[in-house]
């Protein structure tokens, strides 16, 4: 029996991939921060869609198209309820966080002026840096960085000092993918609003672990990728406050996003369709809804409690290894452990772990500025999900010890 | 020895091992014995792109033979480059250009041959051959 409310062994049976082997060893999948695995309940929805009612949406008069449209819009509704969003108009289906951020950055091209300031946290994923750098190049706006401590926590005093009447936008992740830090986003949002700046929170890493209440947070934009929360790849959302989404110009032009088109002038469709040009990822959207149902069935409180238990257990076990250093030691963390072994390159450790059937990520985790901050080429990152077990943590720890013996 | 002879010798050595762990341990040993590149050549220009770890390779002509030295900050990568250098260093550029690299497969490192693999074995082979092409034109 597990010492937890969750019946992990039963949960694991929902995930076909967890019973496969690599190099003749049982797979130990600890790369959940990169992408999570997909339960049968979600896979079934995808197969069902293509088997029974595959049709283009929002345009057909026929039964299949209507069924597909209903299912797709029901998914939007599920997302609305899950994140406590005011209206489905504020939910734009995108291909994921990267697409969502680019949509917003593009929209701000026509709003920002030279000399305006935008703030980025020191622990962002490249997805939440590069689009803004491109925006600054286009507009002449200035990018400033909110620094962090050695523990991987944002320095809030510095943040408050950086905010001014010139600040237009602040972007920060809810949870850092490289460090696991849970950022104090409520405070970040409130402080930004005091100076009239809008805030985009990148929720790619939080969505699988924390159920965010977007109305309570009062956030202006929030982004999610379904594939990090047991859904399929290629689908996600941009949440935007209606007033902002009305203000931003469309991102891509095409079918679906228009009200009327003549060669003289086109008027755009209402929200959310204004930002949804072309045939969307229909099966993906519906499956995203199913993934949210799946997670809520397990329950976010239970998920959080169990993942914290795994995090504590893994942190203590790993720290018992000689020369092991953990990067990201914030008091509030999700179940992500970034670490290195003294004198050993993370890539070497990852290679040995791979041969042992343990999937971890090595490298800079698309967050090179963080690696530069710590002066390291990268880390080994183990990221746990609610379907991981303490036995798998033990396998990881034994693997790291073995790797150390071989490599030192 | 010709490149082919050396490759056969390497394949022979690796055939003594019955599991991946011994093969990797041997590779790590080879990595430690890699003829190291001189510090002055550890430049950005000499870094091979496509590797998660850094790999520097330098080539120099000695008479009509090409001599390689290299280094990496990761030991397994160093082992891989050591194997390649052992096979190719001290050979004529023309022979290096024409050599095939099937022996990598035979010594059980096939999984490193995938072009998407972060260690960049494929990039390393390409780089060694590029050097050979460059020096071949110098020679002729
Ligand atoms: C914090 C963070 N932001 C953004 C992304 C990009 O997400 P996607 O590749 O799904 O667009 C990731 C994914 O790795 C992430 O962890």
UniProtKB/TrEMBL annotation, chain A:
Transmembrane segments: none annotated. It comes from Poritiphilus flavus. Residues 28-396 form the Aminotransferase class V domain. The keyword GTP-binding does not apply. Belongs to the class-V pyridoxal-phosphate-dependent aminotransferase family. Csd subfamily. InterPro entries: Aminotrans_V_dom, Aminotrans_V_PyrdxlP_BS, Cys_dSase_SufS, Cysteine_dSase, PyrdxlP-dep_Trfase, PyrdxlP-dep_Trfase_major, PyrdxlP-dep_Trfase_small. Its cofactor is pyridoxal 5'-phosphate. PANTHER family: CYSTEINE DESULFURASE, CYSTEINE DESULFURASE 1, CHLOROPLASTIC. Keywords: Pyridoxal phosphate, Transferase. Pfam families: Aminotran_5. Catalyzes the removal of elemental sulfur and selenium atoms from L-cysteine, L-cystine, L-selenocysteine, and L-selenocystine to produce L-alanine. The gene is sufS. Its EC number is 2.8.1.7. It catalyses: (sulfur carrier)-H + L-cysteine = (sulfur carrier)-SH + L-alanine. This is Cysteine desulfurase. One of its GO terms (molecular function) is pyridoxal phosphate binding. It is an enzyme of class 2 (transferase). PROSITE patterns: AA_TRANSFER_CLASS_5. One of its GO terms (biological process) is cysteine metabolic process.
UniProtKB/TrEMBL annotation, chain B:
Residues 11-129 form the Fe-S metabolism associated domain. InterPro entries: Fe-S_metab-assoc_dom. SUPFAM superfamilies: SufE/NifU. Gene3D superfamilies: 3.90.1010.10. Belongs to the SufE family. This is SufE family protein. The lineage of its organism: Bacteria, Pseudomonadati, Bacteroidota, Flavobacteriia, Flavobacteriales.
């Amino acid at each position: 029996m597990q010492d937890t409310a969750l019946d992990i062994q039963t949960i694991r049976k929902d995930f076909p991939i967890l019973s496969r082997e690599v190099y003749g060893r049982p797979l130990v999948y600890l790369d959940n921060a990169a992408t999570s695995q997909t339960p049968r309940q979600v896979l079934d929805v995808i197969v069902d869609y293509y088997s029974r009612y595959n049709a283009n949406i929002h345009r057909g008069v026929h039964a299949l198209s209507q069924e597909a449209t209903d299912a797709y819009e029901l998914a939007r509704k599920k997302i609305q309820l899950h994140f406590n969003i005011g209206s489905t108009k504020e939910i734009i289906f995108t291909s994921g966080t990267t697409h969502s951020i680019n949509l917003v950055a593009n929209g701000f091209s026509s709003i920002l002026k030279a000399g305006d300031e935008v703030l980025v946290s020191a622990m962002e994923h490249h997805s939440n840096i590069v689009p803004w750098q491109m925006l600054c190049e286009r507009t002449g706006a200035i990018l400033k960085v909110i620094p962090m401590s050695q523990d991987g926590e944002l320095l809030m005093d510095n943040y408050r000092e950086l905010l001014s009447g010139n600040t237009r936008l602040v972007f920060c992740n809810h949870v850092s993918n490289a460090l696991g830090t849970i950022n104090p986003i409520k405070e970040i949002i409130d402080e930004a609003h005091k100076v009239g700046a809008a805030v985009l929170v990148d929720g790619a890493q939080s969505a699988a672990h924390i159920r965010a209440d977007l109305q309570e947070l009062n956030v202006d934009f929030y982004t999610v990728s379904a594939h990090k929360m047991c859904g399929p790849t290629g689908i996600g959302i941009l949440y935007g406050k209606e007033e902002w989404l009305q203000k931003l110009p469309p991102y891509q032009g095409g079918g679906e996003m228009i009200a009327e088109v003549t060669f003289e002038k086109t008027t755009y469709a209402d929200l959310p369709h204004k930002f949804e040009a072309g045939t969307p990822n229909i099966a993906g959207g519906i499956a995203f809804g199913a993934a949210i149902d799946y997670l809520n069935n397990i329950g976010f409180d239970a998920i959080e409690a169990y993942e914290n238990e795994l995090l504590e257990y893994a942190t203590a076990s790993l720290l018992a290894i000689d020369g092991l250093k953990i990067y990201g030691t914030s008091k509030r963390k999700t179940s992500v452990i970034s670490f290195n072994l003294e004198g050993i390159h993370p890539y070497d450790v990852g290679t040995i772990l791979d041969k042992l059937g343990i999937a971890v990520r090595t490298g800079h985790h698309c967050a090179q500025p963080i690696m530069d901050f710590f002066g390291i080429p990268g880390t080994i990152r183990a990221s746990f999900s609610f379907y991981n077990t303490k036995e798998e943590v033990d396998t990881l720890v034994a693997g790291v010890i073995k790797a150390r013996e071989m490599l030192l | 020895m010709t490149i082919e002879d050396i490759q056969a010798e390497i394949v022979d050595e690796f055939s003594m091992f019955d599991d991946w762990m011994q093969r990797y341990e041997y590779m790590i040993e080879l990595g430690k014995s890699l003829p190291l590149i001189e510090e002055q050549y550890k430049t950005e220009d000499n870094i091979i792109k496509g590797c998660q770890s850094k790999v520097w390779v330098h080539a120099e002509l000695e008479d009509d033979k090409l001599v390689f030295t290299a280094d990496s900050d990761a030991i397994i990568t160093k082992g891989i480059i050591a194997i390649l250098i052992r096979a190719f260093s001290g050979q004529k550029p023309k022979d290096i250009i024409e050599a095939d690299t099937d022996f990598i497969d035979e010594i059980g490192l096939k999984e490193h041959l995938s072009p998407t693999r972060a260690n960049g074995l494929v990039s390393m082979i390409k780089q060694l051959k590029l050097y050979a092409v460059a020096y071949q034109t110098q020679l002729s």
